[in-house]
Design brief:
The protein has about 325 residues and is of the alpha/beta class. Helix content is about 50%, strand content about 10%. It is built from 15 helices and five strands. Strands 2-3-4-1-5 form a five-stranded parallel beta sheet, sandwiched between helices. Helix 4 links the parallel strand 2 and strand 3. The chain starts with 9 loop residues before the first helix and ends in a 6-residue tail after the last helix. About 35% of the residues are buried.
Length: about 325
């Protein structure tokens, strides 16, 4: 991995390099932005840049011992807490972190500490980190990464220099999908737009083997084109992807709204279903689309609250279908 291998984020990378070159880099940085857009990749590459023994310009040399150790995740002066986004970062981990942060650098002029999913710090762990941030050790850089700033302790956020990361451009995601997931054509178009700038979301969805079939059946069910039983469909859908299935339906009504507003086909997500989308848009009034989206957003909250998936799908698809069917006669 090198700067040139990172898709997007040129402004953020240029800012970090410039701040380091001008000796204006804060001891504590907070990388903010949606999940899965490359914040951690930038943090690791920036750590390599800071620790490189040969870099005189804007790129790590990729050849020195330090660069090779960072690449192998074995550099003695680079310390990372990177857990699953659902795992809490606990006080014991922060105490171990705290011990290391006050040690002298082992082989470099500075130490780098990276905490991924910083919003998952427990209160005790956050307070432990805060003590370090109030009196940061010399020659130490702390990089916190989060996609949920509202869940971070305000006193921690206030002591960080914030770097905002934007979602990736659809073209960047399309290129990454071609390289890493080997998808092409309409599938690439759909995934790059549906993922809203998150390459990890796009790649994860590409592993949902039947998503194209399920998506098409959902749209047919809402339109009631094939006399498809809602109960049967709810039984057959892969409900481990229920959150994604609800998002599929949100994308249908979003596209229908854009068609009604005549905003152009370039903005549509589901270009593989032009006939069904036009039928959906043509047989719904604006108030029906808005009411349907409201139901879908409510379903997202119910799903997060662990509502019964079959009951939720049956209720939701039934409501959506009823708003379309009365309009066929017009």
């Amino acid at each position: 991995m090198a700067w040139v291998d990172i898709k997007g984020h040129k402004n953020e990378i240029d800012f970090l390099i410039s701040a380091e070159k001008k000796d204006r880099l804060a001891n504590s940085l907070l990388f903010l932005g949606p999940e899965g857009i490359g914040k951690k990749l930038v943090a690791l590459e920036f750590a390599k840049f800071l620790l490189c023994k040969s870099s005189l310009q804007e790129n790590p040399c990729e050849k020195c011992t330090s660069c090779l150790q960072v690449r192998a995740n074995s550099h003695p002066d680079l310390h990372i807490i990177s857990l699953n986004s659902l795992d809490w970062i606990k006080i014991d981990q922060m105490r171990e972190f705290q011990e290391k942060i006050y040690m002298s650098p082992y082989s470099s002029k500075r130490k780098i500490f990276i905490i991924d999913n910083a919003h998952m710090l427990t209160l005790e762990a956050a307070n432990s980190l805060l003590k370090v941030m109030e009196e940061p050790p010399l020659n130490t850089i702390l990089i916190l990464i989060t996609n949920k700033i509202d869940s971070c302790q305000e006193t921690i956020v206030s002591r960080c220099q914030r770097i905002y990361f934007s979602p990736l451009a659809t073209q960047d995601i399309e290129e990454l999908l071609s390289q890493k997931a080997q998808v092409v054509g309409n599938v690439t178009h759909f995934l790059s737009r549906f993922s809203q700038g998150s390459v990890s979301e796009a790649i994860s969805l590409s592993k949902y083997k039947n998503f194209q079939v399920d998506k098409s059946r959902l749209l047919s069910a809402i339109l009631d084109k094939d006399n498809l039983s809602i109960n049967d469909l709810a039984n057959e859908l892969d409900r481990q992807y229920l959150g994604t299935i609800i998002e599929f339906m949100i994308s249908f009504f979003r596209d229908a709204l854009f068609i009604r507003l005549r905003l152009g086909s370039d903005l549509l997500i589901n270009i593989d279903e032009p006939g069904k989308l036009n039928l959906l848009a043509g047989n719904m009034q604006f108030k029906d689309i808005q009411a349907s989206l409201a139901d879908l957003f409510k379903a997202q909250e119910l799903n997060k609250a662990n509502a019964n998936s079959k009951i939720l799908l049956t209720w939701l698809i039934g409501n959506l279908r009823e708003r379309v069917r009365p309009n066929y006669a017009r």
